[in-house]
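lol so apparently i was supposed to do this last week
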Amino acid sequence: VTRRAQRFVMALSFVAGCTGTPAANDAANGGAVLPDSGAPPLLVDGGHPPIDAGQPDTGSADAGHASGPVFEPPEQRPDLFDGPALLSEAGLYSDLAAGTLAAGVRPYEPLAQLWADTAEKARWLWLPEGTQIDTSDMDDWVFPVGTKAFKEFARDGVRIETRLVWKRGEGDWPMVAYLWNPEQTEAYAAPLGAIDAAGTAHDVPDATRCIECHQGRADRLLGPTALMLSHQGSGLKLADLSAEGRLSDPPVAPLVLPGDAATQQALGYLHANCGHCHDPERPNADRQISVYFWQRADALAMLEDTVTYRSLVTDKGSPLWIDAVLQRMADRGGPQQMPPLGTEAVDDAGLALVEALMAQLRADVPGLPPPVAGTGSCAGTEAVFQIFTDAGCRSSFCHGSEQGGLSFGSAEELHAAMVGVDASGEACADVGLKRVDPGAPEQSLLLLKLRPGPPCGKIMSPAESLTDAQIQTVSDWIAGCVQPGE
Ligand code: HEC
Ligand code: HEC
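anyway here it is w/ heme C bound
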């Protein structure tokens, strides 16, 4: 964040102390005109004239006022975002000052929302007139060129930012957040984002980070999907798009998540908050991820069919990952935090929903064998030592010195450092696993961390160079370890 941007944040912080700000619009409940369209612009410092929204490029309000910081529009970075610099020109409003939406802009609400700490949100979709969404793949809608989606974040009734995702051309998706000025008369593209915007704890991501979540779909939009628009609530829904002929292949029936209301909510929550990254079909999927939450339209009949059940119960068959889901959702600021960005506060209500679902799944997963006390003895440790040596695991930046918290200069030392030793280290200390649990490869962290998506911490980097056969050797070695006393 540049100095200019920092000053901008200061200016907003200053204003956030004012009271009596107009209520945020709540267009999700309304029609084309926002409820507060007649509200006068908010005055800076309770008496200064508002910034002239017609002169945004001059940079600031009347700088002659010595009594307080002034609003300065954020730095533009055409290399990061080359779309409209002003929200008033971005296609959401025909008259931003009056709060009048542009023709054809439709408010909508997804079935489940992304937790954004305590921000209030509103969303709109605009499809070019006379166009259809290609829904031949119900899980991957292809939007017409020109499509725009907007999402507004407000705190205590004050609009902080409005985000744009725009399909400008095939494969051309400009994305940016627009920061509202204190008077709420204009919002400015903020390609560099903002920390603690408007004096709140709300961070606005810079334009390079949008993609981290939004490339979850080839066509970028995460909320306007068949499942997320399949509900009875307010705003534009699947049924409306279908009735209006906007879907090339309308679904024959609404999409409904399985289970009772609590199960549906938990599955929806995980889909909206985690699924855009935790999806095996995701373009450029992160190979460290191995549990999945993005539901598929054709796998919703029963809980057992869902992506989440199959991933956590059928495929993993161990409670470790179920516990990891809850641990990571309850983490903020640590290396394990999930989602890894966009939130600084735990969502207690969301966590409670997911806890109930995880308890249900856990009942279907066999438990781990009871932990073994003490160390055991293993045969064939030399072969495993050789594998790790060849993979560079003993280099000084890894485990050759104490630096990695582990050290082994020989097969004997490897055995001593691993077998029967409790996992330590920030990420994995609480998981209650041993590095090597004699006879139990599937609860040995050494093996779990050689595979994608360990239940805690990261995959060990040299694992990328190990062959499946080598990993199997490690697994067999652990399986063949004799437990103490046997
Ligand atoms: C932490 C992941 C994450 C990041 C980072 C993120 N988004 Fe989103 N965004 C989502 C999810 C999930 C939704 C859908 C759920 C919802 O609307 O609550 C969404 C919804 C939206 C929408 C409404 C249309 C849609 O795709 O559903 C817009 C517009 C949007 N985001 C723009 C942006 C922009 C611009 C940025 C970067 C400045 C950004 N987002 C960064 C996850 C993210
Ligand atoms: C912006 C992308 C992103 C989002 C959103 C996200 N995760 Fe993750 N998650 C990752 C990545 C990358 C990893 C692998 C690296 C690591 O272990 O931290 C991961 C790892 C995990 C793991 C370890 C098992 C595995 O699959 O690797 C769990 C459990 C997990 N996340 C749960 C969640 C939950 C629950 C949510 C939603 C509340 C969530 N994640 C949201 C990117 C994301």
